[in-house]
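Write out this protein's structure.
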Amino acid sequence: MPNDPLSSGFIGTDIPSGSEELFTDIKELSGHTSGYSRLYQCRRYGKACILKALAPAYRDKEPYETLLRKEFEIGYELDHPHICHTLGWMSTPETGNCILLEYIDGITLSALMQQGRLTRPLARRLITELCGALHYMHSKQVVHRDLKPENILITHNGSNAKLIDFGLADRDDFEVGKIPGGTLSYLAPEQIQKEASWDCRTDIYSLGVLIRDMGALLSDRPLRHIAEKCMQANPARRYASVDELVQALNRKSQTWPYYAGGVLLLLLIAIPVLWPSRQENQVLPDTHTHTENASFYGNTVRSLANQENFFIRQCDSIARLHNPVEATPR
């Protein structure tokens, strides 16, 4: 720590030296024990990283080693701010062959939703970020095939989406792993057909399930409408690309204020009309004076005649908005 209290420096931490071991503090991450792979957190030159390796029972066995290598090769070619970076291919005594991955300080989208921290603006931003990542992947003929909230991390710093886990991802030039895969509740129908096939619309279906869950949680009707089109059983009836999905999302996001404004305008028109007519059926005592009548029908000083003139002026104002030439001021 510097002697000068006004100077900058590290507090209570030693700067990592170049003599540190390549990997230190390797420990298996809890909650990641399903399937044939395992995740480990470690430090490399003092920096947090993730290692993805085969479970002990699958090490040095085909086709699992080939699948792990395929995942590395697909991930290593992807470089996008909303995709977890694949940093390299390593081997350690503790893990065997493994993929070195970027460490992301955050929580899964499913945890964020369970904690009640998802808002409408955040949901739309996360969907847009995911679509950006998928657009980039699809342009390289990569299909993720396992989109779900557990495979999307939300960073603590900035609440940005990071797409992870390319264990089931596929690309045109690979011959291994050409079998149906994914999580059943997010699986597109074409993946479980006898002649299974998939393209970018397969990811759009899974993204639609995710959007449906968001829309249900937030009671957001526009999101539910988008999800319905994403989840069409026939791929041809879905959005053709994530770009179309983003355009629909932006249109619906821009439309709802106009609906709210229209409702408010109708109320402004209807209240002056309905309020006097509702009161006309009431019988006033003979003792009411003209001023009392005005107070009963209007805002203390507005008589029936004044209200009628006010309503006419409002109608003319609205008419001028639609046709300034024909509307005649009174």
